[in-house]
Amino acid sequence: MTKPAFRLLAGATFLALTAGAAEAHVGVGDTSGFAQGFWHPISGLDHIIAMVMVGLYAAQLGGRAIWLVPASFVCLIALGGALDVAGIPVPLAELGIGLSVVVLGAAVAFGLRVGPAAATALVGFFAIFHGHAHRMEMPETVSGLAYGAGFVVATALLHALVIGAGLGLGRQTTARGSTLVECLGGAASLAGVGLLAGIL
User: Residue 85's CB: how many other CB atoms inside 10 A?
Assistant: First the structure.
């Protein structure tokens, strides 16, 4: 792994650990909410594939997209959750989540080259569906703020891990790393089709 990728991974790990420690001082209910929020996005196949694709796509694009693309996903996933709290419906949320896996996987598979603004808009659009679904699935017995903080930290940490891996693969001297990333994108897109069809 390259030095920048290692630093990114180390920083994300530190953030996750310190955020968890801070929550532990609030109280048992908040700690439980943070833990449930943290594990929720990495317990669903559709959510985790989409987040992995966001990280790989950011690494593929490089430059400012390395931080803009995942930041867009994290911010808009929080907005999606806030919309549900406000009672504002997000139509066809499950369809949007399935399509996010298909589209983001295809973007990685074909190495879709767009500017940072277009990439953040694409990722952010789909993040709203994920955020809305996360909030709807939140247990009623936990703190909404703690739960939200948990899934935001988990999302950011997973993005950092995947971006680090993607950058490491992309900087190999052969085309093997890039080919592997593209194959992962293709597999994710096919999995998204399966999710939409109710197969997975």
Answer: 12
Of 46-50, 122-126, 138-142, the least confident: 138-142
Residue with tokens 């589209």: 103
Which bin fits 11, alpha (ψ -120 to 50), beta or left (φ > 0)?
alpha
d(CA 180, CA 198): 27
- At 190, the amino acid letter reads L
d(CA 158, CA 156): 6
**DSSP single-letter state for residue 87:** T
Nearest CA-CA partner of 123 in 142, 150, 101 = 101
- Rounded Cα distance between 22 and 156, Å, is 17
Q: Give the tokens for residue 194.
A: 């399966």
pTM, entire model: 0.77
Helices assigned H by DSSP within 63-200: 65-85, 93-109, 116-136, 144-170, 176-196
Neighbouring CB atoms inside 10 A of 86's CB total: 7
Query: Is pLDDT at 97 greater than 50 in this prediction?
Result: yes
Which DSSP string corresponds to 13-53?
HHHHHHHHHHHHTT-HHHHHHHHHHHHGGGTSHHHHHHHHH
CA nearest 159: which of 44, 12, 19, 2?
Answer: 12
Q: Which residue has the tokens 């790990």?
A: 13
Greater model confidence, 141 or 23: 141
